[in-house]
Design brief:
Blueprint lengths: L10 E2 L1 H8 L3 H9 L6 E3 L2 E5 H13 L12 H6 L12 E2 L7 H14 L6 H14 L3 E3 L2 E4 L13 E11 L9 E8 L3 H14 L3 H9 L5 H20 L2
Parallel strand pairs: 4-7, 6-8
Antiparallel strand pairs: 1-3, 2-3, 5-6, 7-8
Length: about 240
């Protein structure tokens, strides 16, 4: 009897991933909900690409991906650093990127950060973002990518920032769901402890396809307010969770 032909990189279910990692399914769901595990939600089901999980495991072993978040600062100050206004301004937005390939998108976004004086060395920033992409693609599906660097090099970042580039047409960015990516968030947060909380927050803000569509349909002048509204919608959820 012939063996079935397997996809070279099949998508795994929560149960299959739990078995692969030798943990329970609740742990997998917790990690993916926190933005720690790379996955994509198709309908009501999470799916995971094995190659990306293997890369994530390598990151964990090398200490590249933070395992824990340690808030050394007072809680109020730390929370303030997680407010959109602490790192994102209207001039941080490229309403329509010109680039049509992955590396050129990275260069365009890095140029924007450098022109705003947010990074000191554009060549370093381009290389650091591409290095991270080569380890694990930042496009998590649903039309959104969250780019950041492997090694933080805080001396290269003048202050915490986030840059957004929008592509109405969409660009092939090796997304987990194989669909074009439309929104490219670049994080240069300077402080190591901010990355995981911000990745978690952004993944929550844009988990709903409606939030992505709202940014895509907004005029250039409206994009900032649409994203600020997505952040405001998270606040009732955060308060409800905190009261449990």
């Amino acid at each position: 009897m012939p063996h079935p032909v397997e996809h070279p990189d099949p998508l795994m279910t929560v149960k299959q991933l739990a078995d692969y990692l030798n943990v329970n399914e609740r742990t997998v769901l917790k990690l993916v909900a926190e933005g720690a595990l790379p996955g994509v939600k198709i309908g009501n089901q999470w799916r995971f690409r094995k190659a990306m999980i293997d890369t994530w495991l390598d990151d964990q072993m090398l200490g590249v991906t933070p395992r824990y978040v340690s808030a050394a600062e007072p809680e109020g100050l730390f929370q303030k650093r997680l407010d959109l206004a602490s790192c994102f301004e209207p001039e941080h937005i490229i309403p329509e990127v010109f680039a049509q390939t992955k590396n050129l998108v990275v260069e365009e976004l890095a140029t924007k950060a450098h022109d705003l004086g947010l990074v000191r060395d554009k060549t370093w920033f381009v290389g650091a973002l591409i290095e991270r992409e080569n380890v694990m693609p930042s496009a998590m599906g649903n039309g959104v990518a969250f780019l950041h660097t492997l090694r933080r090099n805080p001396e290269q970042v003048t202050r915490p920032f986030m840059i957004l580039g929008r592509s109405s047409k969409g660009i092939d960015f090796d997304a987990l769901d194989s669909n074009p990516t439309h929104l490219f968030f670049v994080l240069g947060l300077k402080f190591e402890e901010l990355y995981l909380p911000w990745l978690h927050k952004l993944s929550q803000m844009f988990a709903d396809p409606g939030a992505v569509k709202a940014v895509l349909s907004a005029s250039g002048d409206e994009i900032f307010q649409v994203i600020a509204e997505a952040e405001r919608k998270l606040e009732p959820m955060r308060l409800a969770k905190g009261s449990q």
